Amino acid sequence: MTEFSEWFHNILEEAEIIDTRYPIKGMHVWQPQGFKIRKYALSMLKEILDEDHEEVLFPLLIPEDELAKEAIHVKGFEEEVYWITHGGLTPLNKKLALRPTSETAMYPMFALWVRSHSDLPMKFYQVVNTFRYETKHTRPLIRVREITTFKEAHTVHADAEGAQKQVERAIEIYSSFFDQLGIPYVVTRRPEWDKFPGADYTMAFDTLLPDGKTLQIGTVHNLGQTFARTFDITYETAEGEHEYVYQTCYGLSDRVIASIIGIHGDSAGLKLPPGVAPYQVVIVPVLFKKGAQEVMDFCNQLKDRIKKSGIRVHLDDRDLRAGKKYYEWEMRGVPIRLEIGPRDIANKKMVIVRRDIMEKEIVDYNEETLITDLNNVLEDIKENLRAEAREDFQNNIRPAGTVEEARDIVTNQKGIVSFSWCGDEECGKEIEEYVNVDILGVKEESTEGKCIKCGKESRYLALLAKTY
Ligand SMILES: Nc1ncnc2c1ncn2[C@@H]1O[C@H](COS(=O)(=O)NC(=O)[C@@H](N)CS)[C@@H](O)[C@H]1O
């Protein structure tokens, strides 16, 4: 959808997710509706992380000399770092950076915390705002200058195998989180020239937005011993030796919320996975002159019962035409709408409308099974959203046997292209140049076919796409 960008900006405003009128480019205000969606998404993520990570909170500011310690890392961020130079009217004798990410804030402290092998492994995470002076086109939730929902995990291990296992564990964590949100993704190993500054290698999660461009929604970095050597993070082995630790870090951001909105949304507005929906059920009483009070009494009791079950429910008793209410709650993506009129009460029926399939269904109103029925429908909606998004995603991954074919697909159908690659950097750069896209990375080793650029033996099955 070429007008996807317009749709996206409109729905952020109409559904009151964020207010982009804040007077700093790339920095926005979370409004109550959006803040709730963000809150529920984060509580889903924390529930997974808290199984085997400790949550911490580090200062926002990083001393210039700490940030500069890791040469490759600081090179990678030098154009994006915001600096603090004054405390009030007093110039600071040492500039302070607003964290673009927290390696150089955390690792001097890790050097103090890590003493013996028995302290390892350590697995921390924090959910903070980070700041990056993005010079490319900023977009709300997608490419911002204040990343408000930056979940960064940082782990410390005694050996390379521990770090490798943690990379695999982080990929499981992200997979399960995105699966719960119904966000489809591919995982690739980023090319050497596109890995995180200072990492040995980067694994990345990419999803696809309706305009056919991919969005990097999460990354997992194996940092090896690079930062350990820079920040002197060592531990005493059982034999009394001192060894440098091995580290990983993995992050995701506001882009997760952008994906929920962009991928599940449709022309009627938001379509929220129940797990993050501020309201999961909205009750709309259908009122006529006759029997209005009876309907309201019934709806209030119904609301109380549903609320007590833990389902997030809202009774819309505003004095508005029912159709206006239907439009609003569909636009806000409420998974289930119940419409209750006098006849329904008399016939012990209720009308249920599922936001995912947008069909009215008349069902029995059964006191005993009501809550179970609603939870089953919510679960069904969650699975249906996930299946629909996955199907659409898979249909937008197309193979290309030549660079011409790859360019044709990217130009006309957009989406992701899979291709055979010899793995040679020169070749990779020429493919990016010719097709005018980014190589997302390597999906798996594969000797199938010939490299689409040089014709040599293929080493990898790789993916490329137009990206955000
Ligand atoms: N300007 C931005 N706006 C929104 N999200 C961003 C922005 N820059 C990066 N991200 C998201 O943040 C994730 C982590 O950023 S990162 O640079 O790849 N990795 C790190 O910073 C590591 N320290 C892992 S915590 C990225 O995968 C991407 O999804």
UniProtKB/TrEMBL annotation:
Q: What is its main location?
A: cytoplasm
Matching CDD domains, A to Z? ProRS_anticodon_zinc, ProRS_core_arch_euk
Can you quote a single GO CC term? aminoacyl-tRNA synthetase multienzyme complex
Q: Which residues form the Aminoacyl-transfer RNA synthetases class-II family profile domain?
A: 36-273
Q: Does the keyword Lipid biosynthesis apply?
A: no
Query: Known InterPro entries for this protein?
Result: aa-tRNA-synt_IIb, aa-tRNA-synth_II, aa-tRNA-synth_II/BPL/LPL, Anticodon-bd, Anticodon-bd_dom_sf, Pro-tRNA-ligase_IIa, Pro-tRNA-ligase_IIa_arc-type, Pro-tRNA_ligase_II_C
Q: What is its EC number?
A: 6.1.1.15
What one GO molecular function would you report for this record? proline-tRNA ligase activity
Q: What does the record list as coiled-coil region(s)?
A: none
Where would you find this protein in the cell? Cytoplasm
Catalytic activity entry: tRNA(Pro) + L-proline + ATP = L-prolyl-tRNA(Pro) + AMP + diphosphate
**Biological processes per GO annotation:** prolyl-tRNA aminoacylation
What are the UniProt keywords, alphabetically? Aminoacyl-tRNA synthetase, ATP-binding, Cytoplasm, Ligase, Nucleotide-binding, Protein biosynthesis
Q: What is known of its domains?
A: Consists of three domains: the N-terminal catalytic domain, the anticodon-binding domain and the C-terminal extension.
Assembly and oligomerization: Homodimer.
Q: What does this protein do?
A: Catalyzes the attachment of proline to tRNA(Pro) in a two-step reaction: proline is first activated by ATP to form Pro-AMP and then transferred to the acceptor end of tRNA(Pro).
Q: Which HAMAP family match?
A: Pro_tRNA_synth_type3
NCBIfam families, per the entry: proS_fam_I
Family of this protein: Belongs to the class-II aminoacyl-tRNA synthetase family. ProS type 3 subfamily.
Q: What is this protein called?
A: Proline--tRNA ligase
What organism does this protein naturally occur in?
A: Methanobacterium formicicum
